[in-house]
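Appendix B. One record, verbatim.
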Amino acid sequence: MSGQDLLLLGERQDLIRARLDLSGRVIAAELAQELGVSEDTIRRDLREMAASGLCRRVYGGALRMTHASTTMNERMAIAGARKAALARAAAGLIPAGTTVFLDAGSTNVALARALPTAAGLTVATNGPAIAAALLERDIATIQLGGLIDARSGAAIGAKAMRDAEALRPDILVLGVCGIDPEAGVTADSFEEAEFKRFVASRSRTVIVIVTNDKLFTAAPYSVAPLARVASAVIEADAGEAEAAALADAGIDILRAG
């Protein structure tokens, strides 16, 4: 392979990474046409990038990967006003008198702070930060037990799974690390995905709250197909194409005010 070919390879992959950062996904056929190379060439680029953890390959192209390096405390300090707006919108989807499971996540901490205090709710969670916020508001709270994973800020091990077996939530507000029409809802770790799948299997209705950086993004581990999601609360300025794709999958879309 010549030096020029190596340079072109690097340039192509830099361009692909930029497109992934901008829109969350790339289509192999479109890139091939734009760059004047074969689809096989683009597919080879995507395979190499996926092997390096730079993207996740899906049929016809690739998705941006999530980054799981931040801790719960770090995530709670990011985009507080946006998460509060999402939480206020999501709180309106929780009927009085229901049993709710709030999956661990920084946006669900904001939701715990936004739930009404006199609605007769019973809320279970695997996140201590969520439980603390609920108790401050005198909301009936069930805390699942076990070792707390520092990165996810949640109990996701065997003890938490056993505790969850006693629950049949009316509503699960599922934390998402990525959501995409093809990949569905995804998580950053195997254990986290396993716990989320189990709680979803025991819940009547699944709601997701999605910040813009999670749209059209895939984490490494599958949680649920979009068909399992009833409603998605998205940011006021979320892309129209992304919102339409979720709606086409049968999800009710609510934009935060």
